[in-house]
Write a structure and sequence with these properties.
The complex is a heterodimer of chains A (about 350) and B (about 350). Chain A is about 25% helix and about 35% strand. With about 350 residues, chain A is α+β, with helices and mostly antiparallel strands. The longest helix of chain A is centred in the middle third of the chain and has 18 residues. The two termini of chain B are about 50 Å apart. Classes of the chains: A alpha+beta (about 350), B mainly alpha (about 350). Chains A and B meet through strand 6 and helix 2 of A and helix 8 and helix 9 of B.
Amino acid sequence: MGEIKLTDVNKSYGSVHVLKDINLHIKDGEFVVFVGPSGCGKSTLLRTIAGLEKITAGEIQIDRKRVNETSAADRGLAMVFQSYALYPHMSVRQNLAFGLENSSMPKAEITERIGEAARMLEIDQYLDRRPGQLSGGQRQRVAIGRAIVRRPTAFLLDEPLSNLDAELRVSTRAEIAALHTRIGSTMIYVTHDQVEAMTLAHRIVVMRAGKIEQVGTPLDLYNEPANRFVAGFIGAPHMNFLKAEVAAVELGTVTLTIGGGHKLLVPLSGHKLKVGDKVTVGIRPQHITLAADPGSLTVKTRLVEALGSETVIHADLHGEKLLAVVQGQKQIGSGDEVHFSVAGAPLHLFDENGLRVKSA
Amino acid sequence: MTSTTTSSHLGALLMAPVNALMRVVDIPLRGLQKSTGIGGMAAFFLAPNMLIFGIFVLLPLFINIVYSTTGGTAFFLSERSFVGTEQYQRLFTCTNYLDPMSCQEDAFWTAVGNTFWFVVLQVALMILVSLVTALILNRDLIGRSFWRAVFFFPVLLSPVVVGLIWKWILQRQGLLNFILYEIGNVTPYTWLTDRNWTFIATIGVSIWAHMGLYTLILLAGLQAIPKDLYEAAEMDGTKPARVFWRITLPLLAPNLLVVVVLALIKAVQIFDEVYVLTGGGPGTSTLYLTQYIYETGFASALRNPGLAAAASILMGLVLVVLTLMQLGLGRKNENKGKR
């Protein structure tokens, strides 16, 4: 089992309130990723679950038992630290055995568990080396191995890939996903990288300033972000935001006016919008296409980045920045006038408070 | 923009005499470099320092060696007669090396014995006290910076001041006896006249005076141990004693070794504070090697600079061994760091 429930969890350091009313239910075997910008409280939240930090208010349950007062060691969790936290003076084998020896486990079982984890992570040939003699990727595996040998209720991973280079990060990410499939334990993973979050998570928890902004599957967050922050945070490159005004409200459709008097039709029903309301319209760069029709959005390009398979166009629409990612190679230069089309693109509407305007 | 221009003008004005001076200095230096080459310039710049080092370190060392091969009470070398290794032979003439009284120069062997026990006990206790203090100061104490300063402060005191402070505390009518009497009506102890207490007092006082430096070195070592290692150990349910023996101590070992060697060197050289505190007494109970050398060479009625020089060279050899140990350890740690 590896069910974790947080109810009204709060954490303060003196007058600094770092976690605010966190409510979250993580199911057994689930891979949950906490994501958010630096200082949003995601690592602190992980550390409170681990028992390395005491919460100020609220309740943490692991497998339906309150663990607020339970020590980190007795919560049955294992943590993989950002710096790996391997003991530099011990061999890999000693590092893996250290935690097991604390529980007076028979030597034969310790050897068996180490062997099993080492084979799974392909580190068996490094068992007698010290961490200083290993590469970053190998150290990372040892750190995960140290967690695996304990057979914990859940794994807590605090930005485990942040010290690896880009290439190794991609391959290790895939290995972590495979590992989760193989052992099936609950995993909570902290990152500030939304690509890691999108590729690994069953559910993503987006945090900002100590609060949960939205919890959902990666595609839920991508397709229906609850607010402007989530919309801007999930997806790369970031979503475009244009100021707009409601020009007309008809049954099932809202007409918006954006910069330059361009009109956008948004299919929406059951909302409370009325003519004259100020809103923000969000368009993902991948949903913009190039058009030949001068009747569509006419923009002036500021920078064109040819990536081979796609072309990234930074453009200016009456003083507002607009980014488009179009497929293939285009003969466009900086300063050119081009036409963008958003016909058929999913448009996201946010009210003046930044909250999503939903269809009923 | 204007202020930048003004300040740059002011800078140029102030630098003008400096630049003029540099141009003047430049002329002979350029000439010198032309004639001696770039290697000669290095020697030229090193010369003043080497001269000072030669006059105040190498020359006395050499003179000391010469002194140790001469006899008599005179200080002028021209008035001293060459005696070869006689002074060394005198120091080593013993029927039983474990019994100082059987030696021709019994005071020397008493001082060697006293210094040996002083070094063993003082260094062991010094390490223990410094380590415990560093461990305590490394915790989240209220007023941690204040306590760190308190423990370091005695290091800044002159050894003579340390000796006088403790003499004032430990003498028969001193502060300690006064407090003991006030609290428990305890009869005054003779801390500085009882042989056993005096030996312990010199150890205690020297620890008090020097522990701040070693505590600081150990504290720096403790703070260099990453916090997440302790958190990993906490997650693993490691008991505090095991954390200390298996994590803290091995990771502190490089600092600890440096502290041991430094403390050994310092302990062998003990003199000032003990000389002020006990004068080596009662009897010869706190007569340590440096005091023996000082008294033999300068203070006793029948002074013997040659014998003192020979003893100081023997002591110097011990210090050379300890220093080489320290350098070796330093290099080992440096290589470890590079790996």
